[in-house]
Amino acid sequence: MPPSTDLATVISTSQSSDTAFARASALLPGGVNSPVRAFKGVGGTPRFMSRAEGAHVFDMDGKPYIDCVGAYGPMVLGHAHPVVTRAIIEQAGRGWAFGAPTDAESDLAEMIVSALPTVEMVRLVNSGTEATMSCLRLARAFTGRELIVKFSGGYHGHWDCLLSEAGSGIATLGIPGSPGVPAAMAAGTLSVPYNDVAALETVFAAHGPQIAAVIVEPVSGNMGVVPPTPAFRAAMRALTRQHGALLVYDEVMTGFRVAYGGAQTMYGDEPDLTCLGKIIGGGLPVGAYGGRRDILKMVAPSGPMYQAGTLSGSPIPVAAGLATLRTLQEPGTYERLERTSARLAAGLRSACDKAGIPVTINRVGSMITPFFTTSAVTDYASAKTVDASRFARFFHGMLERGVYLPPSAYEAWFLSTAHDDAVIDTVIAAAEASIAAL
Ligand code: KE4
């Protein structure tokens, strides 16, 4: 929902970014290469960034911002981390696209397999979208079935079958969520409310024998942060097993984020297949899908299910991913992320309480979303009760005070190991001032 006009008084501006945005808008659809970056959800001009280091990004004028976007997840070590930077530079000096396998790809695959016990074999690709698209093709190939179940508010990349919205009723086939998505592609996907066990049972009762897979964000981040209930997680595993469908955990966002072994390890869950991205490339383009060996063996060339990629497993993104995961293995990393993220959540809560602003703060590890609403937020319908205009004013107040948030009320904030106590204190102070001015 576009922000109301009273935002005009609070939207901050930057001359350089205004000029850059005007230029970009003539060359790139919406002036950006990914829609969320265009500030449509909050109004105003996106800040064009020029460099980043640690917990900070810097716009074209050199103005620093504490970064709570983290490139939407990958930058869990902060920007330009010296170990990752060195790995990228050293690999660049040895070449970066061979069209041939390298041993480093097995190193990264081995780290993923070691971190996630349910992943016995993995295929590297170039993005989260490629990971989920390929993973669901594999699920369909392995089961010989076609229906996919996803959850409203869940985002798994922009593949046609996943740009499908709920039809008129719970068990009705999906309808296109975007122009250009063929009705037939959307119809193969059923959308169910997140955390709704009864709705999931209804879908399986109606379509069980035709369902190839359930794909879920094991902690939702794309409607804002919404954790799963234990009953919801148990029902997904029980119903897929009972009906011979596969359970796919889309951990593109949560993998190596909420825990080194992702949400599945944190919760003790056992999905059949897992999708990864973001952190496993350290901010360079890497995605992956993996899981049970008996399923992965179907992927070409070991099996008949085709999937390929010119730059899959490229040496520089793989080097960045390896350096990132190795650094994340340092003792105390996730305890530190937990502590600083909890401090930020408490600071946001206290600022809203002081100002008498209703807020629901959902947090899992270093993924946080403050929802300006009076209700609990457990699914997409409750997430949509937020006051988006109030969020937009808060967003611009924070931007003006040097804190860069995701420009949408329905995104997760991502903290990094570079967000130390002093940085968190600055974010809290900016939030107190911005919330008091709402
Ligand atoms: P990419 O194709 O953007 O690498 O990954 C798609 C994807 C798949 N699965 C999950 C759970 C995801 O969160 C994503 C991408 N996340 C968004 C953040 N809301 C990326 C930001 C953007 O689209 O610019």
Concise overview:
The chain is α/β, with parallel strands linked by helices and 438 residues long. The chain contains 14 helices and 16 strands.
Radius of gyration in whole Å, from Cα?
Answer: 21 Å
The overall average pLDDT, rounded, is 95
Which residues form runs of ≥5 with pLDDT under 50?
1-9
Structural class: alpha/beta
Give the H and E element order.
HEEEHHEHEEEHEHEHEHEEHHHEEHHEEH
Biggest pleated sheet: 7 strands, mixed
Strand order of the largest sheet: 4-12-11-10-9-5-8
Q: State the CATH class of the largest domain.
A: Alpha Beta
The fraction of residues in strands falls at 5-15%
Give the secondary structure arrangement, pairings included.
Layout: H1 15-27, E1 49-53, E2 56-59, E3 64-67, H2 82-92, H3 103-115, E4 121-125, H4 128-143, E5 147-151, E6 164-165, E7 175-176, H5 183-187, E8 189-192, H6 197-207, E9 211-216, H7 230-243, E10 246-250, H8 262-267, E11 273-276, E12 287-291, H9 293-296, H10 315-328, H11 333-355, E13 360-364, E14 367-371, H12 380-383, H13 388-400, E15 403-404, E16 413-414, H14 421-436
Parallel strand pairs: 3-15, 5-8, 5-9, 9-10, 10-11
Antiparallel strand pairs: 1-2, 2-3, 4-12, 6-7, 11-12, 13-14, 14-16
Bound molecules: ligand KE4.
